[in-house]
Specification:
Elements: E1 7-15, E2 19-22, H1 23-27, H2 34-41, E3 45-48, H3 55-69, E4 79-83, H4 94-102, E5 109-112, H5 118-132, E6 137-145, E7 163-172, E8 178-186, E9 194-195, H6 207-211, E10 218-219, H7 221-242, E11 252-255, H8 260-270, H9 281-284, H10 291-301, E12 310-317, E13 321-328
Helix pairs in contact: 3-4, 7-8
């Protein structure tokens, strides 16, 4: 078995719903305002999946585009990793539905649950699989329909979330390209700060849970904000140092698109100009595991990333978890 290969991204894709939900729409639903949402989050609008659609619908679209952009056929993919916590059903893994629909007949498939950090966790896993020689061409997808688990009566959270999917094909690349380092972590003591309280094996749904919206996302906004502001900068500094680089070597940071104030805190901590950060949260809000791959796809389309660039991806989310990665862009 071949060892010590270099792995990197060779194709990206994304898919978002057609329906747009603006801040002005939310003003009619809860006690909030466009000015407050923009000031506190930077979000202007978000995309909402149509009734009857599932996470797999968008994962399939994003995955198909990524495979095509990588110049591959579905049967060339030999593993699928789907980062999500809003699968179509609790069982089976939604990755298996994606595998069948895409025609990736040679690929085993599994879901990965790390909240908004999930896509970068998936990249780290794919990197290890390719470098070890176990798999050669891996489709990593981040997809979530947060509208399905949002309490639309809670003005503190419903303004934040949207739906979508993004994907990347990870494969062997040149010796001086691809993934350089990862920094993954968890702080389980903060598990209850961002969670869905009911619906699992410990607390199955009851009618009372449904009435109290305990089947929807609960977030301690203050605690999650403090964690995110701290860890985003720290993880970025650590992962860059692992490569023997400094923040001055970074060409573009693609952060989790949760809140503009969190991104601005990283700008200040890292001493980088704002134009070194790719931001599209104003259009989509927080799409959880989909946010970084959607941003990567748009950054490539806009010419913000070119071959040889040093790109940092960094996310944080439920768990509490974080994940940062450094790569030299390979296409």
């Amino acid at each position: 078995m071949a060892m010590h290969k270099r792995a990197g991204i060779i194709g990206v894709g994304s898919a978002v719903p057609e329906r747009v939900l603006t801040n002005y729409d939310l003003e009619k639903m809860v006690d909030t305002s466009d000015e407050w949402i923009r000031t506190m989050t930077g979000i202007v609008e978000r995309r909402i999946a149509a009734e009857g659609e599932g996470t797999s619908d968008y994962a399939i679209r994003a995955g198909r585009i990524a495979i095509e952009n990588a110049g591959l056929k579905p049967e060339d993919i030999d593993l699928i990793i789907l980062a999500t916590f809003t699968g179509d059903t609790p069982l089976p893994a939604t990755a298996c539905i994606v595998q069948d629909s895409l025609g990736c007949k040679n690929a085993p498939a599994f879901d990965l649950a790390a909240g908004c950090s999930g896509f970068v966790y998936g990249l780290a896993a794919a990197d290890a699989f390719v470098r070890s020689g176990h798999y050669e061409r891996i489709l990593v997808i981040g997809a979530d329909l947060l509208s399905r688990v949002t309490n639309w009566t809670d003005r503190s959270t419903c303004v934040l979330f949207g739906d979508g999917a993004g994907a990347a094909v990870v494969a062997t690349v040149g010796e001086d390209e691809g993934f350089m380092a990862f920094d993954l972590g968890s702080e389980g003591s903060g598990a209850k700060s961002l969670c869905i309280p009911a619906g699992g094996s410990r607390h199955p749904y009851t009618p009372e849970d449904l009435a109290a919206h305990r089947d929807k996302i609960y977030m301690d906004g203050r605690e999650v904000f403090k964690f995110a502001v701290k860890i985003q900068g720290e993880a970025t500094e650590r992962v860059v140092a692992k490569c023997g680089l400094t923040t001055r070597d970074i060409d573009l940071v693609v952060p989790h698109q949760a809140n503009i104030r969190i991104i601005e805190s990283a700008v200040n901590r890292l001493g980088l100009p704002m134009d070194k950060f790719f931001v599209n949260l104003q259009k989509y809000g927080n799409t959880s595991a989909a946010s970084i791959p959607i941003a990567l796809d748009e950054a490539v389309a806009e010419g913000r990333i070119k071959r040889g660039d040093i790109v940092v991806t960094v996310g944080f989310g439920a768990g509490l978890t974080w994940a940062a990665g450094v790569m030299k862009w390979a296409f």
